[in-house]
């Protein structure tokens, strides 16, 4: 298994267990995150946040708003610089959503992530 696939598996475990500190430990201090959900819930960001403090606030809010939020892994593809993750976003009272997410990796830390969904 490619080392960056292991980062992705740790990411899913931390996210699905809502272990915010474990999730953030996978990220570089200055990491950037882009998500269409950010555009909806925090329109002032235009979908992009930067730095661990912003990531912490975003995911803390998501875990509090959606305590049963869960990602079902479909596929993980990795090379030396990035990981592509395909998963199903599941939460009660919302339809399942198929998601693609790219993690940019440098020095075993996530330096950027981009979320795509329909």
Please characterize this protein's 3D structure:
It is a single chain. By secondary structure, the protein is α+β, with helices and mostly antiparallel strands. The protein has one domain: Nuclear Transport Factor 2, Chain: A (Roll). The protein has helices at 3-16, 20-24, 36-41, 52-65; strands at 27-34, 48-50, 70-78, 82-90, 97-106, 109-117. The protein has a six-stranded mixed β-sheet with strand order 2-1-6-5-4-3. It starts with a helix and ends with a strand.
What is the approximate shape? globular
Beta-strand percentage? 35-45%
Question: Count the helices. How many?
Answer: 4
Helix content: 25-40%
What oligomeric arrangement do these chains adopt?
single chain
Mean pLDDT: 96
Number of domains: 1
Q: Look up the CATH topology.
A: Nuclear Transport Factor 2, Chain: A
Rounded to an integer in angstroms, the radius of gyration calculated over CA atoms is 13 Å
Low-confidence stretches: none
**What is the CATH domain class?**
Alpha Beta
- Helix-and-strand structural type: alpha+beta
Major sheet: 6 strands, mixed
Strand order of the largest sheet: 2-1-6-5-4-3
**DSSP summary, beta strand count:** 6
Element-by-element helix/strand order: HHEHEHEEEE
Which architecture per CATH?
Roll
